[in-house]
Amino acid sequence: MKKIVVLSGAGISAESGIKTFRDADGLWEGHDILEVASPEGWNNNPELVLDFYNQRRKQLRDVFPNKGHSILAELEKEFDVQIITQNVDNLHEKAGSKKVLHLHGELLKVRSTRDKNYILDWQDDLTTAHKDKNGFQMRPHIVWFGEDVPAIEEAIEWAEKADIFIVIGTSLQVYPAAGILHHTKPKTPIFYIDPKPASVTQLANPLEIIPLSGSEGMMVLREKLLKLK
Questions:
Q1: What is the average pLDDT score of the chain?
Q2: Residues 121-175: pLDDT tens digits?
Q3: What is the 3-state secondary structure (H, E, C) of 21-72?
Q4: What pLDDT, on the 0 to 100 scale, is given for residue 200?
Q5: Residue 93 vs residues 64, 65, 74, 108, 174: alpha-carbon distances, Å
Q6: How far apart are CA 189 and CA 202, in angstroms?
Q7: CATH class belonging to 3-226
Q8: Hey, is 79 helix, strand or coil?
């Protein structure tokens, strides 16, 4: 069974109603991104940051996977599909995808500000009253700007083993995630789905750009993939 590795970004979730900050002059739900997604923002106003992610967590109850998510899940019947996502929502999992690696953390988890390995599943509001077992503040389990990306090495390992690589709904502007496709083996076919695809250079692979939304692009790509299995 051939291995498909997918790098997904905010574009695929936008179709489900989750807003992206790059489409709004750097604002994310009305906030400067550094106010709510940086260590400095956390240190300056933890209450604002906690409220912001509490609202995002509530939003997940009202959004659902779209056709792009669903097709990726359905492809597991024919391929070994691994999804590397820059998204912090759980829409890939809701659609049925089994192997999902979150590069930038997960909205439905929180972790200790002292012990990065103390991580809890979390559905409700998080406040300054929530502490870990040693009394240290809990925070959103999100990789903020300026922080290390712990999952990047595993993501690179997945990319290196891909028989087919798909990029979907990402501007390829956020590093180190944007560099993952450059770790694929030479001659590995790469398909890039995005209505406004970024320029991709210095790539030793055949690249096909599909300038459509995630759902429309995956409907087109599914037929191509079934001929490659």
A1: 92
A2: 999 999 999 999 999 999 999 999 999 999 999 999 999 999 999 999 998 877 8
A3: CCCCCCEECCEEHHHHCCHHHHHHCHHHHHHHHHHHHHHHHHCCCCHHHHHH
A4: 83
A5: 11, 9, 12, 12, 23
A6: 15
A7: alpha beta
A8: coil
On whether the pTM is more than 0.85, the answer is: yes
Place of tokens 């359905």: 74
pLDDT digits (tens, 9 = 90+) for 32-84: 889 999 999 999 999 999 999 999 999 999 999 999 999 999 999 999 999 99
What residue type is assigned to position 17 of the chain? G
CB atoms inside a 10 Å sphere around CB 201: 5
Q: Residue 113 pLDDT more than 90?
A: yes
| Beta bridge partner(s), residue 121 | 109
Residues 130, 61: Cα–Cα separation, whole Å: 22
Task: Identify the DSSP state of 7.
Answer: E
Is 182 catalytic? The answer is no
Helices in the chain by DSSP H: which ranges? 10-14, 33-36, 39-44, 46-59, 67-74, 91-95, 152-160, 214-226
Which three-class secondary structure state does DSSP give residue 91? helix
Active-site choice (69, 104, 141, 182): 104
**pLDDT number for residue 22:** 58
Q: Among candidates 198, 193, 188, 185, which has minimal Cα distance to 215?
A: 193
Query: How many other C-beta atoms lie within 10 A of the C-beta of residue 56?
Result: 19
Residues in the chain: 229
- What is the end-to-end Cα distance of the chain in Å, rounded? 7
